[in-house]
Amino acid sequence: QVLLVESGGGLVQAGGSLRLSCAASGSRFNINSMGWYRQAPKMPRELVASITNGGSTNYADSVKGRFTISRDNAKNTVYLQMNSLKPEDTAVYYCNENLWIGLNYWGQGIQVTVSS
């Protein structure tokens, strides 16, 4: 069993920054990648950024150059540094862990609100 706990969300003005953290506990085997997704009201959940066990990263076009995903394996924690935030970044952000066997684990979600 895997538990993912997000922190670091909140309210920020446009142009500001936030850093999300996702602390993972439980089984640490068979991990393919970890990542962040977001879901705005009445919109489907979308990938924001992901990082593989080997350190390769992938970003949504809408956040490239503004967001950075990183991981600290010693702390079992994944981070999402979000700079130059825009009102359209407002959403609930979810931490995700994808396993090689096809399973996905999700955090409870954390609100990020960017005011204009």
Detailed description of the structure:
The chain is an all-beta fold and 116 residues long. It has strands at residues 2-7, 10-13, 18-26, 31-39, 46-52, 57-59, 67-72, 77-82, 91-99, 104-106, 110-115. Strands 2, 4, 5, 6, 9, 10 and 11 form a 7-stranded mixed beta sheet that branches. A hairpin with a 6-residue loop joins strand 4 and strand 5 (46-52). It is globular and about 40 Å long. The protein starts with a strand and ends with a strand.
Structural category? mainly beta
Low-confidence stretches: none
What spatial form do the alpha-carbon principal axes imply?
globular
The count of strands amounts to 11
**Number of DSSP helices?**
0
Please compute the radius of gyration using only Cα atoms.
13 Å
Largest sheet: 7 strands, mixed
Q: What pattern of helices and strands is seen along the backbone?
A: EEEEEEEEEEE
What is the end-to-end distance?
A: 40 Å
Q: Give the % helix.
A: under 10%
Strand content: over 45%
pLDDT averaged residue by residue: 95
Keywords:
116 residues, mainly beta, single chain, seven-stranded mixed β-sheet
Please outline the helices and strands.
Layout: E1 2-7, E2 10-13, E3 18-26, E4 31-39, E5 46-52, E6 57-59, E7 67-72, E8 77-82, E9 91-99, E10 104-106, E11 110-115
Parallel strand pairs: 2-11
Antiparallel strand pairs: 1-3, 3-8, 4-5, 4-9, 5-6, 7-8, 9-10, 9-11
What's this, in brief?
The chain has 116 residues and is mainly beta. The protein has no helices and 11 strands. The protein is globular.
